[in-house]
Specification:
single chain, mainly alpha, 388 residues, 4-stranded mixed beta sheet
């Protein structure tokens, strides 16, 4: 059996080097993904997002508010606009993510205790940019009354200690668990990379088998395996498994050793989970080509499944807030379990005993190829499906 698997694996390695699409779709794509995300999010979180200010008051306090807003880490006042319409057009053109409107008589209303209203508008088409700029605008809008009150109390002769006791009688001491530096890539990329790699695994697996059916070389493939179906499958997948493991190991080294992402748990156990996840995604790819032994149909299924897996994993939108029927469908995607495994291992630092429960939920998908093994074997032998 080992000799059969080795011969099929050697045949597949030769095919990989004869057809550059395999290396481009795996090594080339993941290299691009690593370079893109690590360069785009090199600061941990986006910095100095462009925003605008519409100042109808032109008072000292309104100008000070704009200066303090410009000093925040996530936002930078790119331009002061003359009116609301001009700022809205700039936001619609994508020049700014948000803008703040300071009304007329802002300072005068503050002194008269009239509660002036500050308005701000965000472009929610850019979710991350809008969320971060909204956070800064809200913070500065909440701090503006405190700054005015501080100046009034100073004018009345209060010292700074007494003023802070009146303005902020309770001081919050907050601690971020697992990700204390608010490193956005540490939360995002640990799921994005396996999700994209899983999609690549599905596409490569279905393509490498589907192209054998399309070009009528499946009988030669089985002949190399000496008519052993399982040797043919294992031998064909083995070179790709090694390649995917190398790509995953490169991502782990970049994330946890080079860029110092939080790793509160056991790194070796996380690598074991990654290996199980990779093999599972290969098995799902074999399952898809067994369901539809036509290359175009199998690739379409892989793309649909891979994209839905990213959505259903819950790292972009909490699964708990999705409709109950959608929540139940999440068990069909191993990326959901791998996401929970990653968060509990890397950020929360749970023990192996606490996180091991996710591995069987991932590994159970390895049995899927057995369901379609007879159908796929018939397709390889008879080659009676349309070569599309």
């Amino acid at each position: 059996m080992f000799r059969k698997i080795r011969e099929v694996a050697v045949r597949e390695v030769q095919r990989i080097f004869r057809n550059p699409v395999y290396l481009v779709a795996t090594v080339g794509m993941m290299t691009f993904i690593y370079v893109f995300f690590f360069s785009f999010l090199s600061e941990g979180t986006p910095q100095s997002l462009p925003i605008g200010v519409v100042d109808y008051d032109h008072s000292s306090i309104s100008r000070r508010l704009a200066r303090e807003l410009n000093a925040t880490p996530f936002a930078e006042v790119k331009r002061h606009y003359s009116d609301f319409a001009e700022a809205r057009d700039a936001m619609q053109r994508g020049e700014i993510y948000a803008f703040m409107v300071i009304p007329e008589k802002f300072y005068a209303d503050i002194l008269a205790f009239q509660q002036p209203k500050i308005s701000y508008y965000m472009n929610q088409a850019y979710l991350m940019g809008a969320s971060l700029t909204m956070k800064e605008l809200t913070t500065m809008a909440n701090l503006a009354p405190a700054a005015v009150q501080r100046e009034l109390l100073r004018a009345r002769g209060y010292n700074d200690n007494a003023i802070m006791g009146l303005i902020q009688p309770i001081v919050l001491d907050s601690h971020l668990i697992g990700n204390p530096y608010m490193n956005y890539p540490a939360y995002l990329l640990t799921t994005v990379f396996p999700g994209i790699l899983g999609l690549i695994i599905l596409l490569t697996t279905t393509y490498s088998m589907g192209v054998e059916l399309k070009h009528k070389t499946s009988r030669q493939w089985l002949k190399t395996a000496r008519k052993s179906y399982f040797a043919a499958i294992f031998g064909k997948m083995l070179p790709y498994t090694i390649l995917y493991l190398i790509l995953e190991l490169a991502g782990i080294i970049l994330m946890f050793l080079v860029f110092k992402f939080p790793m509160e748990g056991n790194l070796a156990f996380y690598m074991l989970g990654s290996i199980i996840y990779i093999i599972t995604m290969q098995c799902i790819g074999v399952f898809f080509i067994g369901i539809a032994p036509v290359i175009s149909t199998a690739i379409s299924l892989s793309v649909l499944y891979g994209i839905l897996a990213l959505t259903m994993s819950g790292f972009t939108f909490p699964l708990e807030y999705m409709p109950p029927a959608i929540q139940g469908l999440s068990i069909l995607f191993p990326l959901r379990s791998f996401y929970l495994f990653t968060v509990d291992t890397t950020l929360f630092g749970l023990s192996i005993a606490q996180t091991a429960k996710y591995l069987p939920m991932i590994a159970v998908f390895m049995f899927l190829p057995f369901i379609t093994s007879k159908r796929l074997l018939k397709a390889l032998i008879h080659q009676n499906y349309p070569a599309i």
